[in-house]
Design brief:
The two termini of chain A are 48 Å apart. Chain A has a two-stranded antiparallel ribbon with strand order 1-2. Chain A contains 14 helices and 2 strands, in the order H-H-E-E-H-H-H-H-H-H-H-H-H-H-H-H. With 309 residues, chain A is mainly α. In chain A, helix 11 packs antiparallel against helix 14 and helix 13 crosses helix 14. By secondary structure, chain B is mainly α. In chain B, helix 3 crosses helix 11, helix 6 runs antiparallel to helix 9 and helix 7 runs antiparallel to helix 8. The N and C termini of chain B lie far apart (52 Å). The chains are: A mainly alpha (309), B mainly alpha (280). Chains A and B meet through helix 2, helix 4, helix 5, helix 6 and helix 8 of A and helix 1, helix 3, helix 4, helix 5 and helix 6 of B.
């Protein structure tokens, strides 16, 4: 009892709150309250009935005949598992995220490579030009593609004028417009970590390879690419993870057949008002991105450790 | 060899040019068609300022803009404060209980799909409201969401600056008798002001631009500008939206130029002071 009182007094006098502890505690408490706790609540709601979903603090545990009962409703998950549409949507989200990541890598790698090999004096300008679109609204830039890809849009007008096609191509509201929008929005997230990595690379490795008789192409594949592995991983994760749950781009540029889980989640909440279902979908999306998140996190920790030494 | 480097150089230039064209095409299109006189989507029919005039009388967008600016100001400030704390903890304290968890949580909002963050926060707030009777959804709840997102970005920006900063500076200050908080306010803070400014601007634009979190966290009467734009963009093309875009781009361009000039000037001043100090 005495110990308890003592520790209580210790807590109340705030003497434990040294500078170091406060520096850690303030952001840690905020992140716990605004990030961790909400996820736990979502997990909790996903395991409850539709009608009791509103009261998150009751129902799950019950006490009867001296035994604590843990009552878990997996009905929502069973429903999702039984419905083919959910499965198809998850797979299709993964598909579009993967396509976006691959195209971003194929376009972004040479881009970052040539940026890093440009004259040092113009590198900051090139970098700035990649960053600049970030400062203008993402929403408006995605919206602009509607005008470019529409049936009477800019691209179709150009193709018609050039005589490439004789009637407008249906590009809007297809998987084509969706992928264009996603690649457009996420390309800088691929370029920046790759550039940061490639610009630091020691050029002498390539000179050594050339001295030893490697062709430039061989040197590229056997030295530059392996050395930039961490940049590739960082870029790929920065593109892939948010793409899986993207909502705005599929809503503005996608069509009825471009299934994305972000839209399903949105509709479950806003249109169907089904919290429990929306929560279950959320939990499954989190499970889906858990492995990529872990990879991203490991890369980040490695990077920090590398910079410290 | 000569021919191949020549080819390589031009291939590089071509790739970069096409890449930048891709990045800037939508922005150019937005600006050009904000001056279009007709409503017809993307058919040029003459120069006019009609949409700018209509924009001035568009109460929904104007009041949305006011609200968005207010929220962006609030969340940029809180994000930078919290992000600086987190960055400081991560770069100064290599070992504390729960560091891995702390580091993971502080960077997760960077990549976590926004629908997930938005829905989780919303469900927590709604549950809280059922139990405690508060908070109502509105400006404060949007602020909370934007701070969570902005903090992650601010942490990255400030942390990378702190890691660049030489440890010997703060060690010297401590040797000269500074206490920990004095080191922070007298040595560290003046050295990272530039990073703090970029972090503030970045989180400000993030908040000003955010649709998804705002949609989940807004209540009746707290419709931010992106929410107005998004609801119109969903229906189709609206030239007034182009006018908004052109104006934002104008403001951003001016801000970026002013910032770059200021940066260059302070850099020059510092270099002059440095060389003066060495001459003495």
């Amino acid at each position: 009892m005495n110990v308890l009182l003592q520790s209580l007094r210790h807590l109340l006098t705030l003497r434990w709150l040294t500078g170091r502890r406060a520096v850690i505690a303030v952001p840690a408490l905020f992140l716990t309250a605004a990030f961790l706790v909400p996820f736990l609540i979502v997990l909790r709601i996903s395991l409850s009935d539709m009608d009791t979903a509103g009261s998150p603090f009751g129902g799950l545990l019950s006490y009867a005949d001296g035994i604590v009962m843990l009552k878990v409703k997996v009905a929502n998950y069973l429903y999702i598992a039984a419905d083919e549409l959910y499965l198809l949507t998850y797979l299709s989200s993964l598909k579009y995220a993967a396509i976006t990541t691959v195209i971003c890598l194929v376009v972004g790698y040479p881009f970052a490579y040539f940026m890093a090999r440009a004259r040092p004096s113009i590198r900051p300008v090139l970098m700035m030009l990649v960053m600049l679109p970030f400062w203008t609204s993402f929403l408006l830039r995605v919206y602009a593609w509607k005008g470019i890809l529409a049936n009477h849009g800019l691209l179709n007008d150009l193709l018609l004028a050039l005589g490439v096609v004789s009637e407008p191509l249906q590009m809007m509201n297809t998987s084509f417009s969706l992928v264009v929008g996603m690649v457009y929005a996420y390309l800088p997230f691929m370029i920046l970590p790759l550039y940061a990595n490639l610009v630091k690379m020691d050029i002498r490795f390539l000179e050594a390879a050339a001295d030893l008789g490697a062709t430039p192409l061989q040197a590229f594949w056997r030295i530059t690419v392996p050395l930039s592995k961490s940049g590739i991983i960082a870029g790929a994760m920065l593109v892939f993870i948010p793409s899986v749950g993207e909502y705005v781009i599929p809503e503005l540029l996608g069509g009825p057949e471009t299934l994305m889980i972000g839209r399903v989640l949105w509709d479950e909440y806003f249109t169907n008002n089904d919290w429990a279902m929306a929560s279950s979908v959320t939990v499954l999306v989190i499970l889906l991105i858990l492995v990529p998140m872990a990879i991203f996190n490991k890369y980040k920790t490695d990077q920090e450790a590398g910079e410290r030494t | 060899m000569k021919a191949s480097t020549f080819l390589q150089r031009w291939f590089g230039r071509g790739w970069l040019s096409l890449g930048y064209l891709f990045l800037y095409l939508p922005i150019i299109v937005l600006i050009v068609f904000s001056f279009n006189s007709s409503r017809q989507d993307m058919v040029w029919s003459g120069f006019s300022l009609r949409w700018y005039q209509e924009l001035m009388n568009d109460g929904e967008i104007i009041s949305g803009l006011g609200l968005s600016l207010k929220i962006a100001f609030m969340s940029a400030t809180s994000s930078v404060v919290l992000g600086t704390f987190a960055a400081f903890a991560l770069s100064n304290y290599q070992r504390f209980r729960g560091r891995t968890m702390f580091s993971a949580m502080s960077s997760a909002p960077l990549v976590m799909p926004e629908v997930i963050i938005g829905l989780s926060l919303l469900l927590m707030l709604v549950s809280m409201q059922k139990v405690f009777g508060f908070p109502e959804r509105g400006v404060a709840t949007i602020w909370l969401g934007h701070t969570l997102l902005g903090m992650a970005y601010a942490t990255v920006v400030v942390q990378s600056r702190l890691q660049e900063m030489s440890k010997s500076l703060s060690e010297a200050a401590m040797d000269l008798g500074c206490r920990a908080h004095e080191v922070f306010f007298l040595v560290t803070l003046p050295n990272i002001t530039q990073a703090l400014a970029s972090a503030w601007l970045l989180t400000f634009t993030l908040s000003l631009d955010d649709v998804v979190l705002s949609a989940f966290l807004s209540g009746p009467g707290s419709t931010t500008m992106p929410l107005v734009i998004f609801s119109r963009a969903r229906l189709g093309l609206d030239p007034r939206v182009n006018a908004v875009a052109a104006l934002t781009i104008l403001v951003v361009t001016i801000a970026v130029i002013v910032y770059a000039v200021m940066l260059a000037r302070s850099d020059r001043r510092r270099r002059r002071q440095l060389s003066a100090a060495y001459d003495d």
